[in-house]
Design a protein that fits this description.
homodimer, 323 residues, alpha+beta, seven-stranded mixed sheet, four-stranded mixed sheet
């Protein structure tokens, strides 16, 4: 509703974005019209995910623009990974308090670096004035029936997780405390790795999957609710990075690993006879895959210490709205 | 990054949304997993548009939640109309300062009313904490080669526009002035009509099209730049509503009609021999279609008064970032 002379910054920003986008054969019409047109290959279904990042809510206010760009796309690609979908296209809706070409260029450095890694083409979007906010919608492809859903876990399945858990939450806790921040933990907070290849490979064997964005226990809880089952997790089995182990005592660490958000690892369930296949996928994708528990009859997620006693978290996952 | 007990408001909001969504046969997996899965029909291409509305930038702060919901979807559907695409699915990413179920329910009243009119199914999205902001991505379908693009205008084409122009800007100007606001002008600001049927019908005859969101002269300028042509527009031909005529003197009115944003009418170009077809489309879709000028060689858009003198606006369209 703000009225200004034409030839303005908004169009300049869009042109800056358009100039850096790489082509894909299946993009019939990219940035610059009222909408984009793409060709979904025959025999493929379209997978759609969207996530918004707001300053101070989803990333610390001091986050570098390139890291914001990376993370805005990464959290969306992580949703495609959790569906075992092959990424294809994305849109970007960017709200900024004022047109800032240097900020945008740095943002695009991170965003487009990650896009190039997964051959995702930015096909459209808009730039608007407002508090800093980034809304990304990603589009992926999957063969019918091959998607990894939340509702397929079965009693007797084993529960697995990729990578390590708690690093992002550990880095965030250090940032909040105001002291020294371990660089590798902060990097896990700022530059999560969407597990695309791992997700695609798991489609052949996993019964259910989700990405860990709200915290392991919360996200595994989503699988349990959707699948009408329960789960048991052993805290001692949760994969831990050397940096997290060095930075936190065990009890704090377990809380970060079990309930910290922003890991963007994959949590999935498989039948016990799939262990060899899981090992092969871990080797082929260069991603650690760790068995952490099992699916049981009932409901809810129970965590146990090495001594076999039930562990009750102070909090199990976070929600953006509460409080 | 805010950490809270589970069982929280964010999931409650998503459940409130999911409970009200209507089904479509081509939605394989809707709200509730990491992503949605849809089936694009064979022989159709996918059309994608995304637009964000921020409070105080794209709608007055006192706008009713139901109107915000309507408008957030309408401005996106308008992009599909301008492409001559058939709407199919959408996602919604909603940022709110705090979870407010009553606000959300009212928002959904407007959003889902419009969605139902066009058989658009909400397939996913997210809710996050932050300043009020609504990001919608819409997906439509078009047969290959049938989309209405900006780059097809040809010298000799006639320029047309749907509906009436300037109403939304007239209502906004009254709101800003703080005095009485004409209800029909305010309704045009709050509840724009995406010209879906008209856009679909125009695919058979129009060379180029765009929706009027930034102002007629600015948006027609986008067609001219994309098509490498110029345009001439006669101010006296611009369609005007009775409400706008009653509320503003002619010179103010012309400025609102030529440069006011938020109309979400279609501006399109056709060969002169298409007049009869345009008349038929207007009758069949119940939408006024008015010839307002022509495409000429050169570049830029010139506006002329009834006396034939060039008219120079104080401003030609608005951009969200400038200033």
């Amino acid at each position: 509703m703000s009225e200004h002379p034409r030839g303005t910054d908004e169009f300049d920003l869009i042109e800056r974005i358009r100039a850096r986008v790489v082509a894909r054969d299946d993009v019939m019409l990219g940035i610059g019209d009222d909408a984009a047109i793409v060709q979904v290959p025959a025999g493929q279904q379209l997978v759609i995910a969207t996530d918004t990042l707001n300053a101070g809510v989803h990333f610390p206010a001091d986050t570098a623009p390139a890291d914001i760009g990376w993370k805005a796309l990464a959290v969306n690609l992580s949703d495609l990974a959790a569906m075992a979908a092959q990424p294809a296209w994305c849109t970007l809706s960017l709200s900024l308090p004022h047109a800032d070409a240097a900020w945008l260029d740095a943002f695009l450095d991170g965003f487009l670096d990650l896009a190039a890694q997964h051959r995702v083409t930015l096909v459209g979007g808009d730039t608007t004035r407002g508090p800093p906010s980034i809304c990304v919608t990603v589009h992926g492809l999957v063969a019918p029936g091959r998607a990894l859903r939340r509702d397929g876990a079965r009693v007797g399945d084993e529960v697995w997780v990729s990578g390590t858990l708690g690093d992002a939450a550990g880095g965030l806790a250090q940032w909040r405390a105001g002291g020294a921040i371990d660089a590798s933990l902060r990097a896990r907070l700022d530059r999560p790795t969407p597990r695309i290849c791992t997700g695609l490979a798991l489609a052949e064997v996993a019964h259910a999957g989700i990405d860990v964005s709200d915290g392991l226990l919360a996200d595994l809880g989503h699988i349990c609710r959707a699948s009408d089952v329960g789960a048991q997790v052993e805290l001692a089995r949760l994969p831990v990075s050397a940096a997290l182990r060095a930075a936190y005592a065990e009890s704090e660490r377990h809380a970060l690993q079990a309930t910290g958000g922003d890991d963007y690892e994959l949590c999935f369930t498989t039948p016990p006879q799939a262990r060899a296949t899981i090992g092969r996928i871990a080797a082929e994708t260069g991603t650690a895959l760790t068995r952490i528990g099992r699916i049981v009859a009932g409901s809810g997620v129970q965590a146990f210490t090495a001594a076999g006693t039930a562990w009750i978290p102070d909090r199990a996952g976070y929600a953006h709205f509460a409080g």
